[in-house]
Each structure stands twice: as structure tokens, then as C-alpha cells.
Please model this.
Amino acid sequence: MAGAHGAARAVARARGGGVTAVVVMAKAPVPGRVKTRLCPPLSPDRAARLASAFAVDTWASAVRVAGPLARLAYAGPRQRFAPPLRDAAGFAQVGGDLGARIEHAARAGLALADRAVVIGTDAPGLPPALIAAAAAELAACDAVLGPAVDGGYYLIGLRRCEPGLLADLPWSAPDTLRATERRLRARGFRVARLPVWFDVDDAAGLALLRAAIAAGAVDAPATKSALVQEEPCDCP
Model:
């Protein structure tokens, strides 16, 4: 596998281009530990099954763009993931907070390729075209951010990632995107933005996802199947 990666990089550079690794950050779908803000309306078991489906669909998008340069950065028991992720090439997440974990994931991607794109699993059905657009932006910029409707971001792409780049930023806050972009620009990064997409963190996001799937605006087969199998909430 390493030889194939090296050959791909050599060919791309000979053509004046570069290659991109895509790293998917995912938590093991353990009931009560994932998607807790979706319960209610969902039960903990149902929320975990939905989180598993989110990860499957996100991984499929990553593989469509990056092929053998897709990697899974996992947190929690590997055996709890669905088979496509359980057997995927990857590594355990490292770091105390989200910023440190993203940095570690980005550097792992940059060890494989010229550019690294890091995505979470809160945006099932994220179009592969947006991931590919991030890779294209990194041909001319040092960083790219995919804004989420809640003020955070669903994607970050980097051409370099020094230690501490994302340290002490406000996470899960309305100004996460702005604070990250300010940090990057202060470090001399040329930053591009992608179109806005949505995360599914709460009941409102879940309703938006249902509507998008019903309208055919989101291609997320595992998530669609999981939603069809919904059960009544058994939360207190």
C-alpha cells in the first residue's frame, strides 16, 4: 500500500499537481455516548444506530474522493463500528480536546499526501463534490474551511499543521468558525471557504436532514435506512 501511495504522489507531482488524504473523525456508536443531544426525541440505542449510519455514509463519501488515501480516525472500541469502518485503514484519535485531535488527524493525513482534509460524521450525505472542492482549494491556499449553519465547520483542509495550531479555540460555539479562521490567518495561512452545509447535532438538525433526504438533496443511504427504522423515544 505504501508503495502505491508513493507512486501516486510521484505521478501527481510530475503533472504539477498534488494528492489529498481525507481523514474521517468518528466516535464508536456506543449508546449514551454519541448523539446524546438527539435523545429525546430518540432513545440512546436509536441515536447510536443513527450515529453508526452517519459514519458509514461519511466514510463512503471520503473513499469516493480519496480512494486508498482515506483514513478513519476513531475514538472508542473499534469493534463497535459497522463493518465498512471496522475494517478501514485508520488510527486511534490522539489529543485532549477537539483541536488537538484534529491536529493529530491532519498531520497523519499529511504524512500520506500533500494535502489533508479532515471531516467529522455529523454531516451525513456531505457531497463528495464538496470534499473534492476542498482539495482543489488547497492547490492555491494553505487552508480551507467548510462552514456549518451553527457557526462551526464540517470540514477543515490543511497543507501544513504545526503543533498548537488549533489550541485553545472555542469548540461547539457560535464563533468556532470565525475564531479558527482568525487563528489561521494570524499564522500566515491563506484561507478559503466552501459553501455552507449543515450538521446534525440536535432535533432541529435531524428535522433538516429528514427534509433533505425526502427532497433528494442528500445522498445518504445508510442514514435513510436508519431513519426508516425509527422507534419511539424511551428516554425519561
